[in-house]
Amino acid sequence: MLQVLRLGTVPVLAVSPSFAGLPLNVLAAVDFSASSARAVSLTADLMRRDGRLTLAHVVARDVHHANWLSPDSAYHGSIGRAFDLLIADLGARRVERIERKVLGGDPSESLVEYSERLLPDLIVAGSHGYGFLSRLLLGSVSQRLVRAAHCSVLVAPPEDGPSYLDEMATVTTPFAAYEWAERLEDFTRRNASRTATLEVIDPDLGAQIEEKGLPFVGASFDPRNGRVHFILGSPHLMGRHLTRSINEPTAIQILRDRSGRDVVLRVAHGTGQTLLTFAR
Description:
The protein is α/β, with parallel strands linked by helices. It has helices at 2-7, 34-46, 77-88, 107-118, 132-136, 140-148, 164-171, 180-191, and strands at residues 12-14, 25-29, 52-59, 97-104, 122-126, 152-156, 172-174, 195-202, 206-222, 227-233, 241-247, 249-256, 262-269, 272-278. Helix 3 (77-88) links the parallel strand 3 (52-59) and strand 4.
């Protein structure tokens, strides 16, 4: 499921066994991005007209410390105006009941907790990315909702994003096997000490984040045993490193943003892949 969401350019609906008709109670996670707006628009066409659509937006407590707890924050100020515009864009597709909810804290945790209280028939969210690179790094909110939801889930990318094939040609650099050792040394010199996340994607187990928010120490390839090694942690604290070894890699790719800065190191192995992703 997560692989489809990462690579797809169309909305994906994961249907639960209880999905027997048009949804009546829908929770939409909105951050007012193009992808979440599209998800809401699709939902308005999909759900029953006499249903209830709850638009939930999560704000960080430290950013909106003055008003995030306000009971009318969904109707006033910049957040209220954003809700107004989102609802106005629905036009004639507006459902009878639209409710607004502002939550505070971590987006993933807050939305999952709120969905457990609301018990919706359908949860919708945007994949929050215009191209292949952003979809490859599927947002933690969408990913957590897909994993934790006990109901159907709809995830939509922005409508006007480029195809991943077009973008891959400009941001991805694959290397031949004989180059791996040298290229990983260069990669390490460019990116040492950058904050990174290490994620393993397996077709059977899904995506698993092994470590998050640690400094990148280095990546290397040992041609003697055919392994790629990752090291994360502080280079100044002996014995406090995370080391991951990948047996029998089949491909190594570096994904860069438009400015040429490294964003992802991808190592394919077997039927899965390991992603080293830098904070941006």
